[in-house]
Records
---
Amino acid sequence: MTTSSLATRSLAAVWHPCTPMKRHETEPLLAIAHARGPWLVDTEGRRYLDAISSWWVNLFGHGHPHIRAALVEQLQQLDHVMLAGCTHAPVVELSEKLAALTGLGHASYGSDGASATEMALKMSAHYWRNMGRPEKNGFVGLAGGYHGETVGALSVTDVPVFRNAYAPLLRISDTVPSPDARAAQPGETPADAARRAAAALEAWLARHHSRTAALIVEPLIQCAAGMVMYDPDYLRLARSLCDHYQVHLVVDEIATGFGRTGSLFAHQQAGIRPDFICLSKGLTGGTLPLSAVLTTDAIYQAFYGTDAARAFLHSHSYTGNPLACRAALATLELFEQLDTVQANQALAAQLTAAFAPLSAHPRVRHARHLGMVWAWDIATTLPDFAQRYHAAARARGLLLRPIGNTLYCMPPYVLTADDVRHLATGALAALDDCLHQEAEQAAQARQAPEGENP
Ligand SMILES: Cc1ncc(COP(=O)(O)O)c(C=O)c1O
């Protein structure tokens, strides 16, 4: 089937996410036929380097033989069984493994990141209720924070374009200033910006802690806000403020977990222990939907008993699906076998060197990098820069989707030297393609007869 016929049928039959559908009249869908490693291949045989890991989920490339073999083996043993009243080896082994890696346990499972957010929020508020403090049921997040788009998760997501239409359905949470390192004034360090934001958090908590269950944060990088990076000091200060004011700290590692920021989990760079960790995306290496929430023994104990009203009642049909758990175990085995966190340091150094001309580009502001994430704010007058850049990158064999005027790259961890070159040269060339279009637009505007284009 050709790209165009599949794309046409898709537009008639599928409601695609995150896009006003009419846009696809001018922005054709990419119809993918198969994929291997970091490469996607469309139905006409054109190749695209998946430089954003298919929405930040794919860690070891597509179709990794180790994960595939584990899934085939699991499929021969057990496809699925409900987790209420039943258990199975993959869910037990994965829960033990995640506990060993994080120091938190009692894993509960969902199928997507937003569900993990929902579970963490519900557990936190329910904990306080079980402790005789039902009034502690509010939440606070960081300005620009993103934690998913179901109704509960959206109420702690501070991205107006996703939230505004649904505002009447939500109990929108307060936000405190982001510790965004770009807010550092001349002569200040990112840690200074983090301390200023922590002071604002303290002022907020001092006023509202008695009604607040939890602070929820994306540790070190607020990804959906445009790869907003911040100093680990903020997490240390937030941890001690949450302790002081008896407010839970939820770290949403859905995007930052599994090596993305240079450590297995981002919060580990601050040396803190959160009360809840939310995981998803890379958990299965980008093969199957799965999310998990981990918490402390103390929180678990507050639910422990025979009374249903005190128990954590949150059910999904596919909770702890054996195939997804097996894929997660195989992914974690790859981290060990390949010493991925260490190996990524060398790959990141190669990428940073290859990106040097892009980082030094005169239109780039705030070139930044952490672990396996790179971002550049682009000074452009193009109002539709993100769409134009996406199209230009596609024409150069790259899948990249800027967030507003922020271009970013979050590739799988399996790039060859040729892939690195293709990515860095293509990303720079696509920027120049867009700036060329910008110059053409400006020239046309200058030529337009006066008064015609107010
Ligand atoms: C930090 C964070 N939390 C939650 C989510 C929601 O995950 P999902 O899209 O799987 O619901 C995302 C998705 O991008 C995310 O980046």
---
Amino acid sequence: MGPNPLWLLEDLLRDVELRPGMRVLDLGCGLGMTSVFLAREYDVQVVAADHWIPAAANQRRFDEAGLGGRVQAVDAEARALPFQQGEFDAIVSIGTYHYFGTDDLYLGYVTRFLKPHGILAIASLASTVEARELGGLPEHVRAIAGPEALSFHTAEWWRFHWEESRHVAVTAVRSQPVSPHRSPGS
Ligand SMILES: C[S@@+](CC[C@H](N)C(=O)[O-])C[C@H]1O[C@@H](n2cnc3c(N)ncnc32)[C@H](O)[C@@H]1O
């Protein structure tokens, strides 16, 4: 659903060690393409959670792909997750985290669902300069993304946001290279 989710996920996981059999939450999985990729390429057990896409439709797709036993679709709103404390080895979120994760208190909430020393890895829409530093959202950005673009932040913004919370030890924060799939001039 978002731009180039598999490419973003594979690039993100250069910084993350997922081991076979780990229990991984794909938070905001959309149509579940990333969930299928995680199960197939990393041999992990995936819980594919989304708020807009019905879990029944996603589960049908996972079953048809022969992954019914390894990818479980769940209807979930990110701020009211239907999981147990310490249930996951890793939480992965592609193109989604900015919808809720900019809330100062959200990191403390979502990390409850991780085991001790669990992994939180996100790739999300971001910016190279804070809109605040520019005096506001540039009009060309507002024209495409609307006020949602206020939730796009720089890598350094995210580093500070997470490090200062002390809920996590930050191991990597970076801009991902521009997708190789973009056509010239786009
Ligand atoms: C741009 S799509 C990305 C989907 C998928 N990860 C991908 O990369 O193709 C954003 C997804 O975020 C989900 N989402 C947005 N807000 C959410 C929330 N509060 N709780 C759970 N999911 C949410 C939407 O349901 C949507 O599927």
